[in-house]
Design goal:
The protein has twelve helices and ten strands. The protein has 329 residues and is of the alpha/beta class. Strands 2-1-3-10-4 form a five-stranded mixed beta sheet, with helices on both faces. Helix 1 (3-15) crosses helix 4 (59-85). The N and C termini lie far apart (64 Å).
Length: 329
Amino acid sequence: MLLRQLEYLVALARERHFARAAAACFVSQPSLSAGIRKLERELDIPIVQHGARFQGLTPEGERVLLWAHRILGDRDALQQEIAAMHGRLTGTLRLGAIPTALTVTSLLTTPFCERHPGAGVRLESLSSREIMRRLAEFEIDAALTYLDDETLQGVHRLPLYEERYVLLTPEDEPVHGAGRDGDATDGDAAGGPNGDAGAVSWSRAARLPLCLLSPRMRNRRILDGLFAADGATASPAVESDTVDGLYAHLASGRWSSVISHAWLHMFGIPAGMRVVRLHDDGGVSRPRVGLVFAAHEPRPAMVRALLEVAEGARVRDSLDELLSAHLES
């Protein structure tokens, strides 16, 4: 059995098309097909449901595919380990991140590349479910995601920061005192029930012309829960499934939004807008974001190198200091 044959199988399962899989492996289609057939003969099982077109893998083929991912992952880890033993980490760090955590990845990837100039980084925006699949199939080394996500199974976690939420609103938006509809907002200026001086209530923020992430995003579901805890429901005029799409609308000066403080690292504050503190969430635990990686031993050299950088990066402190600077400006 050759590792190349396993690479053919992985490519075929990913592309679900013989010609595209061959192109991904930089071989001809007959060469890829011959390699798959040879693997079937060596294992004495059918791997591919044969037909004029690719129709999927057999149950035996699905099991072989799982081992192929593991064997190829171990091959890559071995190569990285040998390079690390000689004092020069090489290869590519394959890092995934949920869309709302992409904004802080440079706090890790920049010092990683500075410490390991012989290594590169490939960063992908992934859903939490896709992160679990990619980790299980050895297609990524680690990922940034919410650490309390119910889809996370069989992984190690390294907390990096807790999301803090603030109101991003036009400078001329009257967020304290009476709202646009004339309703009183008692406590907004004085700090409300939790004594947050100068903070705005969630119910007051809900009455602003809002732009928020779409409900399918975890961040939006968290915010909806916080609005509800203050007896309000947010009805945004604009919804986006990306943070940059949200900021593109905020730049117009027409909309307000509730954002994670981590987004300030990448996007800052658009011209003509300001950051306003929101009332304390009443003891609701803030969602933790951090690194997750497969619970395999020995731990690959690439993962060890990333963890060393992450532990010294002071991500939480850096984001908190940035938020304080914006609130005081």
